Amino acid sequence: MNKVIKKYNSNMHRVFVYGTLKSGEPNNNVLQDRTRGTALLVGKAKTCLEYPLVIGTRYNIPFLLDAPGKGKRVIGELYDVDKKMLNTLDEFEDHPSWYTRSKIHVERMPDHESQM
């Protein structure tokens, strides 16, 4: 699961990304491609609970395991995405076969903390 969704209005969805979709990572271009929908970077965030984050396969793919309370708080980015981009992300991540979307609590990181 490379993204977690929190719907906050009928037009946009809040998505938490923690792996290759983050800024500077190899798949961030998916979020930047306006032909695939709209994605607006909200800022850095981290999970409120700890989760195991493992890097697997020969491609170094990150997986967030569904075991809240174990592992560490995971740092990622929040994006507001439209339905078209949400569908793009679901297709890209092969939801629900490869990754699954889940609702979790995250908190925004202050700008000075996100620079560390």
Question: What does the model show?
Answer:
A five-stranded antiparallel beta sheet has the order 1-2-6-3-7. Strand 4 and strand 5 form a beta hairpin. Helix content is 16%, strand content 40%. The two termini are 25 Å apart. The longest helix has 10 residues, at 83-92. It is built from three helices and seven strands. The protein is α+β, with helices and mostly antiparallel strands and 116 residues long. The radius of gyration is 13 Å and the shape is globular.
Range of strand content: 35-45%
**What composes the largest sheet?**
5 strands, antiparallel
Strand tally is 7
- Spatially, the strands of the biggest sheet line up as 1-2-6-3-7
Distance between the termini: 25 Å
Q: How would the global form be characterised?
A: globular
Q: What share of the residues lie within helices? A: 10-25%
Question: Could you report the average pLDDT, rounded to the nearest whole number?
Answer: 89
Uncertain stretches: none
Series of H and E elements = EEHEEEEHEH
* Radius of gyration over C-alpha positions, nearest whole angstrom: 13 Å
Structural class: alpha+beta
- How many helix segments? 3
